[in-house]
């Protein structure tokens, strides 16, 4: 058994398994920092640059203990029902809407994401887009590439003194607020939560009030039943004539035909989109009407910037995300630590000293009365050094360190706990 240094004494590295048998599937060009962390553990890592078609995904997911994805791979209940060995899903991004979180939890599969490692990258992109839209640089750039000299100032404006309206004042929205004020903009925002405004930003009561008062509107909400299609004809009609619209959240939030109508009738002077209702699965695929008629309609509009979902795609963000999510997956597989999980209770225990003969029970179960009594009866013959249990809706997670157990005790505890009626998943690491 290997040992890790922890402060002034040695900590036990818990690995009840042959690490070489742990298989990890990484999709969508996840950063090398994650590959390095996982391979250093001795895990077998299969690494693809793109998302896989569903049939191939199902074939591969059957055989792995962990999978890493970004925004394209849909882990639906159909796909997860095939994932019989899966312990952990790493979303190497912020959004987790591509995963059926409830199904994952009900199967004892933990889901991690990286809640803010790419927020700054998105905020910087939005600042750039505000300037580019305001100066109509997208169109001027395209003209120059075609050999056309078109020096105009009409309707091109500074952003200083203009109002930025932010929908969703979370990690990205609030970071953007600070950057925009530094550029001389006034900031107001709308959020379903009452939040502390940064700088001199101002929270407004309703989405419609925000839409009517800003020169630029930018959306930074997660995909939820409430935010799906939240921007339609009525909302664009509320916006100031000649204002600009930006979306780098999720494509489902905006009704593209309504946006196109607002652009064509001159209600909006331009728009920037980074995300779409349907996106190609990999680089090299085309962005054409195969995805929907809305593609051609958008491509015809003037002063519309379109980027291929690159809000979080910077070297800095991808490296940080790789390290953060890669480590979270390792900690869960090796130690059972679920801190940072988005679908299971966050449970952890202090590390075990290398000299201690301790086995750690990791038990995900249905959250019903009587389960802990049953488990503690199983453990009654042993000294439970420490234990912690928490629940998240219908699912609960118990972690217990049991002292002075031999291989026979461990096998016995495993068999009794996993036979418990409310068992979802039982592991013992030692
Ligand atoms: N284009 C890209 O590459 C990227 C896109 N994203 C997307 O951006 C979204 C936002 O990211 P973060 O700021 O990190 O999320 P966050 O969770 O920190 O903030 C989201 C905010 O939206 C608010 N909100 C939720 N529903 C709302 C509603 N109906 N109306 C108004 N406000 C609402 C929440 O209260 C929260 O304050 C992510 O969920 C993800 O989908 C994130 C990173 C990169
Ligand atoms: O980088 C990606 O693939 C996805 C970025 C994103 O949309 C997110 O972090 O939610």
TrEMBL record:
Residues 360-430 form the ACT domain. Pfam families: 2-Hacid_dh (PF00389), 2-Hacid_dh_C (PF02826). GO terms for molecular function: (S)-2-hydroxyglutarate dehydrogenase activity; NAD binding; phosphoglycerate dehydrogenase activity. The keyword Thylakoid does not apply. Pathway: Amino-acid biosynthesis; L-serine biosynthesis; L-serine from 3-phospho-D-glycerate: step 1/3. Keywords: Amino-acid biosynthesis, NAD, Oxidoreductase, Serine biosynthesis. It is an enzyme of class 1 (oxidoreductase). InterPro entries: ACT-like_dom_sf, ACT_dom, D-2-hydroxyacid_DH, D-isomer_2_OHA_DH_cat_dom, D-isomer_DH_CS, D-isomer_DH_CS1, D-isomer_DH_NAD-bd, NAD(P)-bd_dom_sf. The keyword NADP does not apply. One of its GO terms (biological process) is L-serine biosynthetic process. It catalyses: (2R)-3-phosphoglycerate + NAD(+) = 3-phosphooxypyruvate + NADH + H(+). Its EC number is 1.1.1.95. NCBIfam families: PRK11790.1. Belongs to the D-isomer specific 2-hydroxyacid dehydrogenase family. This is phosphoglycerate dehydrogenase. It comes from Paraglomus brasilianum. The lineage of its organism: Eukaryota, Fungi, Fungi incertae sedis, Mucoromycota, Glomeromycotina.
